[in-house]
Specification:
Elements: E1 5-7, H1 29-41, E2 47-51, E3 57-63, E4 71-72, E5 76-84, H2 93-107, E6 112-118, H3 128-133, E7 137-141, E8 146-152, E9 159-160, E10 174-178, H4 183-198, E11 203-207, H5 211-215, E12 224-228, E13 231-234, H6 240-247
Parallel strand pairs: 5-6, 10-11
Antiparallel strand pairs: 1-2, 2-3, 3-5, 4-9, 6-8, 7-8, 10-12, 12-13
Helix pairs in contact: 1-4
């Protein structure tokens, strides 16, 4: 079992692969968009730690105060993503990455760690059952089944911003909020544009490009949020079949 990990820095960001979409022959536009996003986030204390191998084995987290999510709290880390895929699963890598995050939080005097979850596990969210084995507990909820999970060191807890519980927007057309934190967002936005153009569907694609916009979103958010007919639908990235089901409502 390889235990050689590397943290991304301003110095190595341009040379290290970013795990999610691995390309050996040519750059993927989603990767380059994320690399640019990370270049600004690393100076804010954002951590991207990965196995030093050509693999999808990584954790990504940031101080809650500068995390691009509508969650508020003092002195917490927010975990965007903990992902282990393929032959690396069930070998203890997820445990090592979570233990690193916990140790880092304690060393820096944080009050705890939090992450987005749901009453029923959803795709594109880290495994909440795994997190709960470490002691994460539900500290806040929304009316549509999303949960804020937290591991508190001192008894304090974060919470969803009140605006994140609105789950409504005024526009009735397909409305998608997104940022470039996830490499898959780039290609998903392109797919949505093409699908909507082909089927004469009106769509508003709202790029979240500042921390202030992220903190004021009208829904839970990890890097993506979908509304249709004024109602919140999902934080899951879409494929054409999923989008078609939403538009039939």
């Amino acid at each position: 079992m390889c235990t050689d990990f590397v943290n991304l820095t301003a110095e190595n960001l341009g040379d290290e692969h970013l795990c999610c979409i691995i390309r050996s022959k040519k750059a993927h536009p989603g990767i380059e968009a994320k690399r640019q996003w990370l270049s600004d986030r690393l100076k804010e204390g954002h951590v991207f730690r990965k196995l030093n191998a050509k693999a999808t084995v990584f954790i990504e987290y940031a101080p809650l105060e500068t995390a691009w999510v509508p969650i508020i709290g003092d002195n917490y880390y927010y975990v965007y993503c903990l992902w282990v895929l393929g032959s690396y699963k069930k070998k203890g890598y997820g445990k090592l990455l979570m233990e690193y995050c916990l140790a880092d939080a304690k060393e820096k005097g944080k009050s705890g760690i939090c992450m987005l979850g749901a009453k029923k596990q959803k795709s594109w969210l880290s495994d909440q059952a795994f997190a709960k084995k470490f002691g994460f507990q539900t500290v806040d909820t929304t009316d549509n089944g999303y949960e804020l999970l937290a591991f508190s060191f001192d008894g304090t807890t974060p919470r969803f911003a009140q605006n994140a519980k609105a789950l409504k927007v005024e526009s009735k057309e397909l409305t998608i909020y997104y940022d470039m934190q996830c490499p898959f967002v780039f290609q998903t936005v392109d797919m949505v544009k093409q699908y909507c153009a082909m089927h004469d569907v009106s769509v508003s694609l709202m790029q979240v490009d500042t921390l202030e916009k992220a903190k004021s979103l009208p829904c839970v958010f990890n890097n993506w949020g979908v509304f249709y007919k004024g109602n919140f639908e999902t934080v899951n990235l879409l494929d054409a079949a999923y989008l078609k089901r939403i538009l039939k409502k």
